[in-house]
Amino acid sequence: xxxxxxxxxxxxxxxxxxxxxxxxxxxxxxxxxxxxxxxxxxxxxxxxxxxxxxxxxxxxxxxxxxxxxxxxxxxxxxxxxxxxxxxxxxxxxxxxxxxxxxxxxxxxxxxxxxxxxxxxxxxxxxxxxxxxxxxxxxxxxxxxxxxxxxxxxxxxxxxxxxxxxxxxxxxxxxxxxxxxxxxxxxxxxxxxxxxxxxxxxxxxxxxxxxxxxxxxxxxxxxxxxxxxxxxxxxxxxxxxxxxxxxxxxxxxxxxxxxxxxxxxxxxxxxxxxxxxxxxxxxxxxxxxxxxxxxxxxxxxxxxxxxxxxxxxxxxxxxxxxxxxxxxxxxxxxxxxxxxxxxxxxxxxxxxxxxxxxxxxxxxxxxxxxxxxxxxxxxxxxxxxxxxxxxxxxxxxxxxxxxxxxxxxxxxxxxxxxxxxxxxxxxxxxxxxxxxxxxxxxxxxxxxxxxxxxxxxxxxxxxxxxxxxxxxxxxx
Length: 475
What we know:
Blueprint: H1 6-56, H2 64-78, E1 83-89, E2 94-97, H3 110-116, E3 121-126, E4 133-143, E5 146-156, H4 158-208, H5 222-271, H6 277-308, E6 317-320, H7 321-331, H8 333-338, E7 342-347, E8 353-356, H9 358-374, E9 381-388, E10 392-399, H10 406-409, H11 429-439, E11 443-449, E12 453-461, H12 464-474
Parallel strand pairs: 7-9
Antiparallel strand pairs: 1-2, 1-5, 3-4, 4-5, 6-8, 9-10, 10-12, 11-12
Helix pairs in contact: 1-4, 4-5, 5-6, 6-11, 7-9, 9-11
C-alpha cells in the first residue's frame, strides 16, 4: 500500500481521472451498441410491416368476408423466423397469430396506439405469461382508407440481451486491465516525482540545521530541476551573505576599535595632568574627531537597519536641488582642498525643485561626492552636472579617480561589500544611498572604468510645479 503523502495523491487523482474517463466511454459504448442492435431489429421488422401493409392494399376491393378469410394467407406470406406475427383489429383484439394459440386478451401497448394513429409503433417490454423481454412493431392495415387491422411483429430480445451482456463483461474486463496498467504507471510516475522531492527535502533539512555545505545533486526534470537549482543557489547566497557578514563584523570591529583606542588613550593621558594647554587642546580635538567618527559609523548602521525594516520616515518638502548640491560642495570643500581636488557644479543655472527630505537627500549626495574625492588622485577634479528634463532631473557625479573593475561594479551597491576593506568603512554607504534614492521615487546608476574614473547618476522626479513650469517654457 502506498504511504500517505504526495505520491498517494498523485496515484489516486490519476487513477480517479482515468477511471471516470473509462466509465464514461464504456457507458456510452454500451448504450450505443444496444441502441444500434435494437434499431437494427426495429428497422428490419418495420420494413416487413411496411411491405405487408403495401401488399394488403391490393385487396381493398374485396368484401369484408373475403378480407377476413385472407388473413391466414397473409400469415403464411409475411411471417418471419423466430418472430410472432399477429393481426389485430382496431379494438386491440388478436384476430389471428402465427403461433396458433388463441389470445382473448386485449392488447393496449403503446405500439398499438401509434399504429391506430397511422404510424409505425414500437414497444419494448415483458411478454405476459413468459416474462421474457420482447420488441413489438405494429403497422396499420387500411382498406378503402379506413384502418381496420393492425399487423404486429413480436420478437424476443433475450438472445440479444445475452450477447449485449457478454459485450458488457468484455468491456468491463478490458477497462479493468487498462486501470491495472494505469495504476502501475501512476505508481511509477509518483515515485519519479516523490523520490527527487524526498532528496530535496532531506538536503533542505540539513541546510535548516546549519549545514550549508550540502547541495542537491543529480539531474531532475522541469520544475524539480528549477527547485533544486534554486535551493542550491539559496545556499550559495546564504554562505556568501554569511561571509560578507563575518567580513563586516571584522571590519566594523576594527573601525570601532581604532577611534575607541584613541579616545581611551588620550582620555587617560589627559586625566593624568601635567600637560600644557596646546597639548590638552590637541588631545581634546582628537577625542572629538574620533567621537564624531564613531557617531557616523553608528548612524550609518542605524540608517541601514531602519531601511531594512521599512521604518525610515521621510519629511518631504519642496527642495531646491541646485542649492542642496552647492551646500554639499561646501561641506566637502576642506577634504577636497587637502588633496588639491577641484569640485564644481555645472548644468542648470536656475533653481530645480523636487519633493524630497532635504536631510536624507543631502546624505545621498554627500556620500557620493565623498566617495568621489576619497577614491580620486591628487590634483584631479570632481564634476556635478545638473540636467532637467520634462518630468525628471538628473545629477551626474563624475570623477577621474581609480575607477572600479567590471567584476566589482556589479556588487558595489551590495550591503557590506567593500572593494578594498583596508580603506575602512562599513560597506553600507552605497547600499543606503541606493535605498534612499528609491524611497524618493528615483534610481541610481553607476558607470566606471578601472583607472579612468567613475560616474554616479541619480535620477529623481521633478516637483509637479516645476514640471508645469518646464512645459510652459517649451510652449
